[in-house]
Design brief:
Helices cover about 30% and strands about 15% of the residues. The strands form three sheets. A seven-stranded mixed beta sheet has the order 3-2-1-4-7-6-5, sandwiched between helices. A five-stranded antiparallel beta sheet has the order 8-14-15-9-16. A four-stranded antiparallel beta sheet has the order 10-13-11-12. Helix 10 packs across helix 15. By secondary structure, the protein is an alpha+beta fold.
Amino acid sequence: MTEHDSGADQGTLFGAETAPSEMPTADQAQHAEPAPATALVAAEASAPATAADESNVEAVGEEQELRPWESLPVTEDADGHALIVTAEASYRPSGARLTGPVDSIEKLGQLIDWAALTPLGVPAQVWLVGIGACELLGWTIDPGREEDYKDLEKLRLRAVEDLCQAVTTTLTALTKAGWELRGDPGHVVHLSRQIGKATQMVDLVLEPYVWTYWNKDFGWYNRIGDMGILGNPTKGTYLPDDDLPAARELGRRLAWSAKHLGVLPGPTAARTGASVLDKIRRERLQTSKGIVVTTAGTMPPIDGAPKTDLEPAEGWFRVPDSDDLHDIAQLVTIDQRAAYLASAGMLSLGYGNARQLLGDDAAAAAAEDKPAFGIWRVTLPAAGQYSLPEKLPLPHPAMLVDQPVTTWITTVSLEGLCAPIADGGMGLEVDDLEVTEAWVYAEQGRALDKWAKVMREARTVAVESDDVAMKRFLGTCYKGYIGRMLDPKKWTATRMQHHHQPLWRAAIMAHCRWRGRRVAMRIARETGRWPIRTETDSWVYLLGEGQNIADDSDQLGKMALEKHVELTDEMILSFAAAETSREIRLAISAAYGTSTDTDDDEEED
């Protein structure tokens, strides 16, 4: 049986006698009344499973508020690639009900066989939504309460161990049908089996246990992080609490990802970004058009490599002086719109084999009109001997005021240091940098241009439809993927090693930093205002009444307004009284009413 079989066949799967029905519409979901936290009160088996049928739903609690994106239409783009299972029924992502409760591993296997799901960028997926769906399969854990643990990481690890055991001991029916586990099961259970010469793969995703995955930081280290396609609880974008509205919204998000990214969401946001690039890579291999990167861009064997990032993010505070405090009325943070995405799409990136240059050869290569992509061993001169803007951070994070520093920099920083001071640079000549060694790439080009285009167009759709959930998800995808370029341990599989590109990441980080510095110089020329804080790609300013330094353009990389607050007399006094960077940090945090004055997860305009 295939996914295209008749509705009557769908209705008789598992011997059910109910006709197929739909997940609630947006309007129905808005007026559905929430069920108890311990289990949903299901409708009678003989009735259609619509949340709007109040005669079959126990009224509990207040009416749920529908968030704007939850009213957006659900499409069929993920149908045939994914299924959604709640305690009550199974559904296609578009909303069509397929069966009644999936209350045994045998039935789960029957459903998978019947659906004949196909991959879309990643293996096919079956999503279990709500703890009730997991309980029906025996997938429950009780690792203890938070108050029982001094270290919440130990609670998470206990939960991971218990979940692995609970899943492993119940899969007999699936293993008899030829399925095998790929790795230890957790909140994602990776299944595969051989069918002739082909390998069929399906991922079971256990939504209630997504917090057990370390990368999500759910409740650990005093923060709750993004849960990939599921959203972020602290940002208000997680799935609705009740099963049916949650299933509908998850179906919408799966279809959205399939339609606009061309792939199902990966187990992490970073893997989703990688899947988009791999889809483009496969297309280019088939057409022999465009750059295809097949090998990892590992860090060359260099001496004196920085202990942290090759091009670290900027982090800087400044105590304002009397000029900064004159006639101020507002505190403003501007942030580069989708900064990493903008840089990734426009940079020419090196790939293939790097070539080492030494001595005069390295210096000559650095002095070319357009130096090749690579890294350069330079000596950054002491900043104090140059007439640099006193109210900006030093041109490079590794630079010191009173002494030279020998380090490695990317081509982006090489060009930035040689740019005019008015453009955010340092006005150096290449000879001033004493280049002694380099690793450069003969092959280079915009390897991420198509990837950035897909992400950019999807982001435009999310922005124009006010789909905050998917806009945030996209942000985690491209930020997460670029962040993961650094660590080879994240790409251990042979087929994924080409995603290990630490020099690409360093170049992207450097490009964002130099672009921000260039904008800060322009703002200073136009308004006389200088920043008091910068973190990565955002800048904090004290401004006068009515002053606007944000860029209204929707072009990526432009400085958009991230935060804004009108200053009270008390706030102004706190800035005037500040004498240290810490006191400035506290003043900014107090003005914005936050525990910290920066948040890399802030939504971008």
